[in-house]
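Tokens as discussed.
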């Protein structure tokens, strides 16, 4: 949004926050609704997956209040029986106690997933795609990235992009591959994968494939956007940074990148969804077998393009 008070905001591309003089009460209400960093508005043409809300205070809570993503990265097992990793949790048991469980249940309902680990895999890939899309776009377009400290980055598991993520403070970091990997892989996706593996029994190799697939997909979409707009230098930076990140030790062996095309060495399990098929970068050319589901397919689902297309 554009406001007449824009002169008091940081200039485009400047991540530093400057102290503001105390405005009149009416102006204070206006300023609380303005993004902390207007430079991030340049991400909006890329689409919702690449948009990051920056606001203080947080927006009014919806059905689920946004919480720091750090709260989702806990390995406590939520299910009580040994079959929990292959059964959809009983939704009649009451509301979940944590945001990750809420998100997995939401995905399970949306896809009629026959197994909790299928919903957990799709939810994991969707969040990975959001984090990669935001950070990769910032690194390529600005040469800087916001520090996505899990204590400052809030998540509403009931919302869809771009209203699912809110950053309460914006601090600039360099946009090189090592820093981007630290911001996304080390701070978020490594602990998220450990949590999803511990709670839902999703294989670590599969989760590594999800992370790589989400990264490749984010890079591919950024490359396409840049070339559509005649920004070949931006497209080249997107390709180069994506390739550097896929060479990170945490993603070693996840798949093969050729240009912007990626072929992973694992499967996200989407084919097990009733009516589901394989994703565009799946290791399987076609579903390996019928989905093990007690529920009949409601409608046929198209082949899914990565990353995390149905995660919101």
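Sequence:
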């Amino acid at each position: 949004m554009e406001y007449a008070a824009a002169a008091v905001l940081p200039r485009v591309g400047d991540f530093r926050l400057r102290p503001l003089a105390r405005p009149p009460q009416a102006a204070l209400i206006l300023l609380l609704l303005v993004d902390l960093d207007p430079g991030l508005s340049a991400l909006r043409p890329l689409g919702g997956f690449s948009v990051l809300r920056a606001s203080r205070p947080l927006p009014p809570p919806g059905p689920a209040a946004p919480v720091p993503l750090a709260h989702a990265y806990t390995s406590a097992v939520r299910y009580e029986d040994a079959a929990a990793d292959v059964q959809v949790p009983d939704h009649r048991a009451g509301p979940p106690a944590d945001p990750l469980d809420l998100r997995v249940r939401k995905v399970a309902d949306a896809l009629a997933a026959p197994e909790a680990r299928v919903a957990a895999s799709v939810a994991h890939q969707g969040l990975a795609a959001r984090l990669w899309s935001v950070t990769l776009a910032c690194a390529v377009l600005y040469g800087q990235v916001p520090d996505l400290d899990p204590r400052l980055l809030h998540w509403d598991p009931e919302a869809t992009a771009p209203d699912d993520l809110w950053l309460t403070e914006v601090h600039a970091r360099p946009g090189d591959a090592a820093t981007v990997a630290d911001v996304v892989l080390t701070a978020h996706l490594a602990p998220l994968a450990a949590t999803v593996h511990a709670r839902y029994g999703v294989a670590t190799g599969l989760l590594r494939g999800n992370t790589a697939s989400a990264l490749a997909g984010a890079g591919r979409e950024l490359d396409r956007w840049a070339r559509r707009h005649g920004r070949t230098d931006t497209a080249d930076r997107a390709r180069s940074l994506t390739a550097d990140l896929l060479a990170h030790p945490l993603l070693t062996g996840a798949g093969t990148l050729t240009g912007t095309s990626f072929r992973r060495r694992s499967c996200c399990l989407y084919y097990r969804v009733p009516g589901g098929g394989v994703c565009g970068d799946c290791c399987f050319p076609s579903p390996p077998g019928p989905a093990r589901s007690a529920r009949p397919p409601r409608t046929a689902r198209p082949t899914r393009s990565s990353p995390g297309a149905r995660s919101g």
